[in-house]
Each structure stands twice: as structure tokens, then as C-alpha cells.
């Protein structure tokens, strides 16, 4: 059986399971559609949250970004896990006690202001659509590879499948499918990593293998540091970027995590306040299984790739074109070339492919001496690394099929969760809550599905020319959530900020961040409409991906200032805040307004 | 009526000290949270560079794995401690 058939088999079988579960648990009422009737155990909920949370960004993109940057991209690892501490300590139990369905309902009630609710809804929709763009980038990579078509065709096919899939069921269908997706995803991520760790270090646990030694007794990281610096690249374990951006980027990802609706919504579905606290912990347990493996995947892949291009060592001759074309160990290169995400060119016509850092002065000297005319690995899209990894390491074909299924599970589960959050924001908060309060249940569900269709169309269109690699686009979505939603939720629980403060805070934090991102990434992410780049950012050298934390500070500052100058909150809101702080008396969520 | 009033006052008092205890716990947890990630993982990494961990240093380990393990411990510790506090102050869900 060839690889293509095996991939199809694995992807097809996993899809059959998800769709089967979605049909079996199809949502009937609006309450089931949004919150699954609250019958979800904390461990189950944690697993579903993990699947929901770990998207194409975590699964496909993150290890690639770590592999080619090294230590500096640890920000992704700390940022996307550290946010759960904030969620568990500062938000989840209180929002569960409040007992409504959506984040914006809390904001509307706590700040006794339909305007606050509207602003929150709009912030949520924009952040979520940005997030979906990142997912579509990942979907394009995954479908492009396993159907052996171009990235664009893969993206369009993927969009149709994501849409069909998300429209099928609401949260309940999604909760149990996501448990299945988590299982597929984590097996697909860890199994190849275990193989590779065994090959390189003899340690079956990749997270430990990362700090282990290769067969010659030298620590893996030391070998990697040496081999990449010999080719003129930055030392893998060293801090090469600037500290300010690393701190702000980590912080943005952390507070963005605690401000994204599709994750917070998960904590509305546990039976009790005490369960909401455990749930965040369980979610992080399941997430950590992948996140502790990811740095090992990145480092080991970087080592494997570099050694493939320099099979005799970095001081000897590079790999020959003939070997790339005939040696089965290099088959992955031809497969990935078809997707347009990998490219090489024998610039100096010596029949070999030299992969090195052409901007390094030391390497330029060596290039001149050896007759090289530039780096000949002309294109290596970081997003392909995780999918290509098992092929690079020559793992059995079933592992490669499994990874394809896992990548799709990751992108699909998050896209579905986000589409659900967007559709509930439009139908529940915008239409039922504001515009057409008397809408029937049936029409509310219809509006929810139309909203899904529109957002996936927009995300697909923008996903064709994404503002960055999947994880970078997703990071922008986190910045937006960090600047708008997290501060206002926190102030709603921990302070007595009033309605005007909240609206002013959200608007200023969100708009400043959005404009800052658009200035660097293009207006509405349309390419070539940007005035600045992240290489030379506008404000104190802060990159647009790191700006969310600044937006959050603006949000807090404006909210407290405006609130201090206007009328304090009424008595009944003070009572609401006090009741949210105490678990006793929590009831099942009720349909608001 | 009088009984009811003192009862309510006592409850409000208990509620206040419960909230103070919660805030203390949150602050302790968040200090550890920041120390391990932003501290050991990034800003204080140069200070830890002398401590070797498998081919790199302790700061690198904290940035790539250590902080995640600490986050896990913090969440479970907080959940366990708070669920106990809920019962001590009589504000738990029955």
C-alpha cells in the first residue's frame, strides 16, 4: 500500500469516528447547543478543552517555530500554558458561579450595560476570526500534504470540511468528538516523538530525551548547538532576540489564553464551582503532554534535518542532488516540494545542496572559499516541520498516516470550537440579546449557522494570504483577546469598576492593539498595506505579536481612570460581585435575556 | 429578627475573611507563577547559567519544561486549598 492510501485510510477512519459521535450526540435545544447541559465531568471536560485549545498552531506550527529559532520561542511554551494558571485562579470559578452561557453575558450583566456587552461581542468576534485564519493556514498545510495537492487547493477543501463539520452539532456533539480528537491528536504527536527520541537518545520519553545524550555520549543540545553554529546559525539554546519582546510576548499569550471565549466557555459546562477549579488543572495536564514533548520534537527535528543536508558532517561536502533524488531517506523532500512549501535550488551548479546561513560573515567567507553562491535550501515553511518530521526520520508509513490524522484533528477541533463561539456571539448575544429579543429558538440556531458560514468564508479568504505562520497568526488573536476581554473580566470580579470604565477600557485597549497590528501586518491583513514591519516596529521596538500585553495595560489604566471620575456601581451590582466571589448557591446556568 | 441580623452580619464577616484568604492565596501562587516563567525562564536565566542541565542550563529547562510543571502544580494546589477553604468558611456548594 502506498503512503497516499495509508494517509487517506487514517484520515478517513478518524473522520468517521468524529462524525459518528457528532450524529449520536446531536444538539437539540439551544441550551445543549451552547453548554452541553452541564453534564460533563471535569476530566472529560479537561480533555475536550485540551483538544479545543491545541490547534493547528500548537500541533503543526509551534515545534517548527521552536526548531528554527530555539530558546527564544520558548515564549510559546510558557505563554500557552501559563494562561491556565490565570484562568484557574482569576476567572473560571467565578464565571461558573455567575452561571450564564457566554462571556459577553457576564460583561453585560456585571457592567449593567448593553453597550459593554456589544463591545465585548465585537472584540470576541474579531479575535476569534483572526484565530480561525491561523487554523485555516494549518488546514491548508495538512490537506495539501495528505491529498498531495497545492496549499491553496488543500485550504479550500479543508474549509468545506470544517464548515460541514462545525454545523453538525453544538457543544455537546463537539465535547465528545473533541475527546476523540484529543486521543487521536496526542497519539499522533507523541508516537513519532517517541520513535525519534529512541533513535537519537535511546530515551523513550521525548521530554527527557531532549536533555539526554546522543549515542556518542555528548548531550543532544550540545551537539545541536555545535552543528547549527558551524553553519552560521544562532546557537539553539542561547537567548538571541531581545528580552523585552520575549517577556511581553509570553505575557500576551498568557493573558490572551485567559480571554478567549472558546476556552472560557468550557468552564460554564462543569457541574460545580469546585469542578471549574479542577477542570482548568485537568485541561493543563492534557495540554502539558503535548507541550512537554514539543520542545523535544523541535530540537530533534532540527538536528535530523541539518544532518540530512550534511550527512558527512558540517565540515565535509553537502548532500548531493543525486542522493536527494534516489535515496529513499530523502523522499520526503520531493513530496513536500509538490505542496510548494519546500524548495531547493543548486545555485552554483555543483550538484550539491548547501544549507547554511548566508547572512553570517563567517559563512560568507567559507562560501567564497568553496564556491557556494548562497543558501540552496531556498524554502522551508516552518509549518510543515511536524508533519514532515516522521518522514524525515524514516518512520513506518502508519506513523505518517497517524500524524496526518492528528494534524487535521487539531485544526478541526479548534476551528469548530471557535466557530461555535462566534456563532453563539452573533445569535445569542447580538441577535437574541440586542437586536431581535423575540427570536424563536429555531431561528436562533439558523442565525448561528449562518454566522459560522460567513466567518469561515472570511477566514478562508484571508487564510490564502495569511499574516504569518499558523502560530504567529494565532498569536495575534491572543493579543486582541488579551487587550480586550481578560482585563474587563478580571476587573468585573476583583474590582468595582463601573459601566463607563469597562466600555472605555475595552474600546481603548482593543482599538489601539488592533490598529497596531494592522499597521504592521496590513489593514485587515491584506498584504502590502502595512506601514511598518516587525523587524522595525513602531513603538519601543515592540513587535505586533507582543503588543497584546501593552493593550491590556492600556485597558486597565483607562478603565480605572474613567471609572474613578464617574458614578460608582449601584448597590445591586455590588451584591452581584459579592455573590460571584462565593461558591455557595451556584445553580445551573440559565438562559439570559 | 435580631438573631437573623447578627447571623447575616456574621455571614458577611465570614465572607470578607474568606475573600481575604483567597486573595492571599492567589497572590502567593501568582508570585511563584511569575518567578518560574518570567524569572527563571527569561530574566534571571543569566544568574542560573552556572547550573548545567543536560547540555544546557537551568534557565533553558525552566523556559522549555520546568515552568509548565510548576503551572500544573500551582493549579492543583490552588484547587485543593480553595475547596478546603470553601468548607472551612462554610461557603461551599452542598
Automatic annotation (TrEMBL), chain A:
Residues that span the membrane, as ranges: 6-25, 74-95, 116-143, 149-168, 180-200, 246-268, 280-301, 398-426, 446-464, 470-494, 501-519, 539-562
Membrane topology type: Multi-pass membrane protein
Domain of life of the source: Bacteria
InterPro entries: Na/Glc_symporter_sf (IPR038377), Na/solute_symporter (IPR001734), Na/solute_symporter_VC_2705 (IPR019899), Sodium:Solute_Symporter (IPR050277)
GO terms for MF: transmembrane transporter activity
CDD domains named in the record: SLC5sbd_u4
Compartment list: Membrane
GO CC term (a single one): plasma membrane
The entry's keywords: Membrane, Transmembrane, Transmembrane helix, Transport
PANTHER family: NA(+):SOLUTE SYMPORTER (SSF FAMILY), SODIUM/PROLINE SYMPORTER-RELATED
NCBIfam families membership: Na_symport_lg (TIGR03648)
Family indicated by similarity: Belongs to the sodium:solute symporter (SSF) (TC 2.A.21) family.
Protein name from the UniProt record: Cation acetate symporter
From TrEMBL, chain B:
Pfam families the UniProt entry points to: DUF4212
Domain of life, source organism: Bacteria
Transmembrane segments: 25-48, 60-80
Domain Sodium symporter small subunit positions: 16-92
Upper lineage: Bacteria, Pseudomonadati, Pseudomonadota, Alphaproteobacteria, Rhodobacterales
Protein's name in the database: DUF4212 domain-containing protein
Species name: Sagittula salina
Keyword Membrane included in the entry's annotation: yes
NCBIfam families, per the entry: Na_symport_sm (TIGR03647)
Keywords recorded for this protein, A-Z: Membrane, Transmembrane, Transmembrane helix
Amino acid at each position: 500500500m502506498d503512503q497516499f492510501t495509508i494517509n487517506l485510510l487514517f484520515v478517513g477512519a478518524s473522520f468517521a469516528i468524529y462524525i459518528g459521535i457528532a450524529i449520536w450526540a446531536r444538539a437539540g435545544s439551544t441550551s445543549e447547543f451552547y453548554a452541553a447541559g452541564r453534564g460533563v465531568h471535569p476530566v472529560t471536560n479537561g480533555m475536550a478543552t485540551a483538544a479545543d485549545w491545541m490547534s493547528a498552531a500548537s500541533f503543526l506550527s509551534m515545534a517548527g517555530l521552536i526548531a528554527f529559532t530555539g530558546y527564544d520561542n520558548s515564549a510559546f511554551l510558557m505563554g500557552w500554558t501559563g494562561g491556565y494558571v490565570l484562568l484557574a485562579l482569576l476567572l473560571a470559578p467565578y464565571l461558573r458561579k455567575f452561571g450564564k452561557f457566554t462571556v459577553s453575558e457576564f460583561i453585560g450583566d456585571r457592567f449593567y450595560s448593553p453597550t459593554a456587552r456589544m463591545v465585548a461581542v465585537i472584540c470576541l468576534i474579531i479575535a476569534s476570526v483572526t484565530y480561525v485564519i491561523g487554523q485555516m493556514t494549518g488546514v491548508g498545510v495538512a490537506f495539501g500534504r495528505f491529498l498531495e495537492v497545492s496549499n491553496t487547493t488543500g485550504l479550500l477543501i479543508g474549509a468545506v470540511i470544517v464548515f460541514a463539520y462545525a454545523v453538525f452539532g453544538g457543544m455537546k456533539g463537539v465535547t465528545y468528538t473533541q475527546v476523540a480528537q484529543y486521543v487521536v491528536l496526542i497519539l499522533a504527536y507523541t508516537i513519532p516523538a517517541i520513535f525519534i527520541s529512541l533513535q537519537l537518545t535511546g530515551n523513550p520519553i521525548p521530554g527527557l530525551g531532549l536533555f539526554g545524550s546522543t549515542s556518542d555520549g555528548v548531550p543532544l543540545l550540545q551537539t545541536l548547538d555545535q552543528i547549527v553554529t558551524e553553519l552560521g546559525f544562532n546557537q539553539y539554546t542561547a537567548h538571541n532576540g531581545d528580552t523585552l519582546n520575549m517577556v511581553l510576548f509570553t505575557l500576551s499569550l498568557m493573558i490572551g489564553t485567559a480571554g478567549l471565549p472558546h476556552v472560557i466557555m468550557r468552564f460554564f459546562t462543569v457541574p460545580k464551582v469546585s469542578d471549574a477549579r479542577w477542570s482548568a488543572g485537568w485541561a493543563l495536564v492534557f495540554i502539558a503532554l503535548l507541550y512537554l514533548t514539543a520542545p523535544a520534537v523541535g530540537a530533534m527535528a532540527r538536528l535530523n534535518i541539518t544532518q540530512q543536508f550534511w550527512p558527512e558532517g558540517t565540515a565535509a561536502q553537502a548532500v548531493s542532488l543525486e542522493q536527494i533524488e534516489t535515496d529513499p531517506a530523502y523522499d520526503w523532500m520531493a513530496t513536500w516540494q509538490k505542496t510548494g512549501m519546500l524548495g531547493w535550488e543548486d545555485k552554483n551548479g555543483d550538484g550539491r545542496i548547501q544549507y547554511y546561513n548566508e547572512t553570517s560573515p563567517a559563512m560568507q567567507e567559507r562560501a567564497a572559499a568553496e564556491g557556494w553562491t548562497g543558501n540552496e535550501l531556498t524554502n522551508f515553511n516552518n509549518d510543515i516541520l511536524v508533519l514532515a518530521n516522521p518522514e524525515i526520520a524514516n518512520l513506518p508509513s502508519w506513523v505518517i498516516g497517524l500524524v496526518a490524522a492528528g494534524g487535521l484533528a487539531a485544526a478541526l477541533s479548534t476551528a469548530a470550537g471557535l466557530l461555535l463561539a462566534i456563532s453563539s456571539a452573533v445569535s445569542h448575544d447580538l441577535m437574541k440579546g440586542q437586536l431581535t429579543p423575540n427570536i424563536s429558538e429555531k431561528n436562533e440556531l439558523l442565525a448561528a449557522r449562518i454566522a459560522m458560514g460567513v466567518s469561515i468564508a472570511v477566514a478562508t479568504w484571508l487564510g490564502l494570504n495569511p499574516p504569518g505562520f499558523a502560530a504567529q497568526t494565532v498569536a495575534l488573536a491572543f493579543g486582541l483577546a488579551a487587550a480586550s476581554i481578560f482585563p474587563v473580566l478580571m476587573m468585573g470580579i476583583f474590582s468595582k469598576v463601573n459601566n463607563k470604565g469597562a466600555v472605555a477600557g475595552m474600546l481603548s485597549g482593543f482599538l489601539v492593539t488592533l490598529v497596531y497590528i494592522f499597521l504592521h501586518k496590513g489593514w485587515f491583513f491584506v498584504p502590502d498595506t502595512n506601514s511598518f514591519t516587525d523587524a522595525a516596529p513602531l513603538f519601543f521596538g515592540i513587535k505586533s505579536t507582543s503588543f497584546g500585553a501593552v493593550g491590556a495595560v492600556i485597558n486597565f489604566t483607562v478603565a480605572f481612570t474613567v471609572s474613578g471620575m464617574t458614578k460608582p456601581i449601584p448597590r445591586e451590582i455590588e451584591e452581584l460581585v459579592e455573590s460571584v466571589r462565593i461558591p455557595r448557591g451556584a445553580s445551573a446556568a440559565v438562559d439570559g435575556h | 429578627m435580631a438573631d437573623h441580623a447578627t447571623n447575616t452580619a456574621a455571614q458577611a464577616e465570614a465572607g470578607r475573611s474568606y475573600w481575604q484568604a483567597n486573595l492571599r492565596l492567589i497572590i502567593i501562587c501568582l508570585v511563584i507563577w511569575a518567578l518560574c516563567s518570567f524569572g527563571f525562564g527569561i530574566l534571571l536565566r543569566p544568574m542560573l547559567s552556572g547550573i548545567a542541565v543536560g547540555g544546557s542550563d537551568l534557565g533553558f529547562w525552566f523556559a522549555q519544561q520546568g515552568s509548565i510543571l510548576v503551572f500544573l502544580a500551582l493549579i492543583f494546589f490552588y484547587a485543593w486549598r480553595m475547596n478546603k477553604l470553601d468548607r472551612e468558611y462554610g461557603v461551599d456548594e452542598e
